[in-house]
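Wait, can you check?
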Amino acid sequence: MFVIETQVYEDYGTRIKPKGGRSIRCEVANREEAEAVASIIENEFEHILDIDERPENWESQFVTSQRAYNDHGDTVYLDPVVRRSEKNGCYYLQRGHIMGNFVDDEFDHLKGKFCGFVDNISTGVCVLRIEGDDRTRIDESYLEAA
Protein backbone atom coordinates (compact mmCIF):
# COMPACT_ATOMS: atom_id res chain seq x y z
CA MET A 1 0.00 0.00 0.00
CA PHE A 2 1.14 3.54 -0.75
CA VAL A 3 0.23 6.86 0.85
CA ILE A 4 -0.05 10.04 -1.18
CA GLU A 5 0.51 13.18 0.93
CA THR A 6 -0.89 16.40 -0.52
CA GLN A 7 -0.88 20.14 0.20
CA VAL A 8 -4.03 22.12 -0.56
CA TYR A 9 -3.95 25.80 -1.51
CA GLU A 10 -6.73 28.42 -1.58
CA ASP A 11 -6.77 31.34 -3.99
CA TYR A 12 -7.55 34.65 -2.27
CA GLY A 13 -7.33 36.69 -5.48
CA THR A 14 -4.18 38.60 -4.58
CA ARG A 15 -2.38 35.61 -3.06
CA ILE A 16 -2.52 31.85 -2.76
CA LYS A 17 -2.43 30.44 0.77
CA PRO A 18 -1.55 26.87 1.89
CA LYS A 19 -4.44 25.24 3.82
CA GLY A 20 -3.55 21.77 5.06
CA GLY A 21 -3.78 18.69 2.88
CA ARG A 22 -4.74 15.03 2.74
CA SER A 23 -3.18 11.64 3.39
CA ILE A 24 -4.68 9.36 0.76
CA ARG A 25 -4.36 5.60 1.19
CA CYS A 26 -3.63 4.16 -2.22
CA GLU A 27 -4.27 0.40 -2.31
CA VAL A 28 -2.57 -0.42 -5.60
CA ALA A 29 -0.03 -3.00 -6.75
CA ASN A 30 3.06 -0.83 -7.21
CA ARG A 31 4.62 2.63 -7.09
CA GLU A 32 3.90 3.29 -10.78
CA GLU A 33 0.18 2.90 -10.14
CA ALA A 34 0.42 5.16 -7.07
CA GLU A 35 2.13 7.79 -9.26
CA ALA A 36 -0.67 7.43 -11.84
CA VAL A 37 -3.24 8.08 -9.10
CA ALA A 38 -1.22 11.08 -7.90
CA SER A 39 -1.24 12.56 -11.41
CA ILE A 40 -5.07 12.32 -11.42
CA ILE A 41 -5.40 13.94 -7.99
CA GLU A 42 -2.93 16.78 -8.52
CA ASN A 43 -4.35 20.05 -9.81
CA GLU A 44 -3.72 23.76 -9.47
CA PHE A 45 -4.98 23.80 -5.86
CA GLU A 46 -3.75 20.40 -4.60
CA HIS A 47 -0.09 19.50 -4.94
CA ILE A 48 1.59 16.14 -4.28
CA LEU A 49 4.18 16.32 -1.51
CA ASP A 50 5.18 12.67 -1.25
CA ILE A 51 4.32 9.11 -2.25
CA ASP A 52 5.52 6.55 0.26
CA GLU A 53 5.06 2.81 0.74
CA ARG A 54 3.42 1.95 4.09
CA PRO A 55 2.11 -1.16 5.89
CA GLU A 56 -1.44 -2.28 5.04
CA ASN A 57 -2.76 -1.27 8.49
CA TRP A 58 -1.37 2.30 8.28
CA GLU A 59 -3.55 5.25 9.30
CA SER A 60 -2.63 8.93 9.35
CA GLN A 61 -1.83 10.66 12.63
CA PHE A 62 -5.15 12.51 12.22
CA VAL A 63 -7.17 9.27 12.27
CA THR A 64 -4.97 7.64 14.93
CA SER A 65 -5.42 10.58 17.31
CA GLN A 66 -9.20 10.63 16.78
CA ARG A 67 -9.37 6.95 17.72
CA ALA A 68 -7.02 7.38 20.71
CA TYR A 69 -9.07 10.15 22.30
CA ASN A 70 -12.52 8.84 21.37
CA ASP A 71 -13.88 7.68 24.72
CA HIS A 72 -17.39 8.97 24.07
CA GLY A 73 -18.15 7.61 20.61
CA ASP A 74 -17.46 10.74 18.57
CA THR A 75 -17.53 10.70 14.78
CA VAL A 76 -14.21 9.51 13.30
CA TYR A 77 -13.19 11.07 9.98
CA LEU A 78 -11.22 8.53 7.94
CA ASP A 79 -8.40 8.86 5.44
CA PRO A 80 -9.63 8.65 1.84
CA VAL A 81 -8.82 5.34 0.12
CA VAL A 82 -8.14 4.78 -3.60
CA ARG A 83 -8.61 1.41 -5.29
CA ARG A 84 -8.53 0.34 -8.94
CA SER A 85 -11.50 -1.47 -10.46
CA GLU A 86 -10.70 -4.80 -12.07
CA LYS A 87 -13.81 -4.39 -14.29
CA ASN A 88 -13.07 -1.08 -16.00
CA GLY A 89 -9.57 -0.07 -14.87
CA CYS A 90 -10.82 3.20 -13.32
CA TYR A 91 -9.60 4.48 -9.97
CA TYR A 92 -12.18 5.04 -7.22
CA LEU A 93 -11.72 7.17 -4.09
CA GLN A 94 -13.80 6.33 -1.02
CA ARG A 95 -14.20 9.21 1.45
CA GLY A 96 -16.20 9.45 4.63
CA HIS A 97 -16.48 8.84 8.35
CA ILE A 98 -17.71 6.45 11.01
CA MET A 99 -20.84 7.97 12.51
CA GLY A 100 -20.58 8.83 16.19
CA ASN A 101 -23.13 8.43 18.96
CA PHE A 102 -24.22 12.07 19.01
CA VAL A 103 -26.75 12.16 16.18
CA ASP A 104 -30.44 12.98 15.87
CA ASP A 105 -32.88 10.09 16.37
CA GLU A 106 -33.52 9.83 12.63
CA PHE A 107 -29.87 8.80 12.14
CA ASP A 108 -29.69 6.47 15.13
CA HIS A 109 -29.39 3.42 12.86
CA LEU A 110 -26.07 4.80 11.51
CA LYS A 111 -24.22 4.97 14.84
CA GLY A 112 -20.85 3.24 14.51
CA LYS A 113 -21.27 2.67 10.77
CA PHE A 114 -19.43 4.05 7.75
CA CYS A 115 -21.06 6.93 5.88
CA GLY A 116 -19.54 8.52 2.81
CA PHE A 117 -19.15 8.59 -0.94
CA VAL A 118 -17.20 6.90 -3.71
CA ASP A 119 -15.82 9.06 -6.51
CA ASN A 120 -14.60 7.77 -9.86
CA ILE A 121 -11.47 9.93 -9.94
CA SER A 122 -10.70 8.77 -13.48
CA THR A 123 -13.85 10.58 -14.69
CA GLY A 124 -14.32 13.10 -11.86
CA VAL A 125 -17.83 11.85 -11.00
CA CYS A 126 -19.26 10.79 -7.63
CA VAL A 127 -20.86 7.38 -8.27
CA LEU A 128 -21.98 5.93 -4.93
CA ARG A 129 -23.39 7.07 -1.56
CA ILE A 130 -22.86 4.79 1.43
CA GLU A 131 -24.95 5.14 4.59
CA GLY A 132 -24.27 2.22 6.89
CA ASP A 133 -25.55 -0.90 5.15
CA ASP A 134 -27.26 1.05 2.34
CA ARG A 135 -25.42 1.70 -0.91
CA THR A 136 -27.08 4.02 -3.40
CA ARG A 137 -25.76 4.43 -6.92
CA ILE A 138 -25.77 8.05 -7.98
CA ASP A 139 -27.60 8.60 -11.25
CA GLU A 140 -25.09 9.31 -14.02
CA SER A 141 -27.68 9.76 -16.77
CA TYR A 142 -27.05 13.51 -16.80
CA LEU A 143 -23.62 12.72 -18.27
CA GLU A 144 -25.19 11.44 -21.47
CA ALA A 145 -26.54 14.91 -22.25
CA ALA A 146 -23.12 16.53 -21.88
User: Anything to note?
Assistant: The mean pLDDT is 91. Strands lie at 2-11, 16-18, 23-27, 46-53, 76-77, 81-84, 91-98, 114-120, 125-131, 134-137. Residues 31-41 form the longest helix (11 residues). The chain has two domains: 1-58, 60-146.
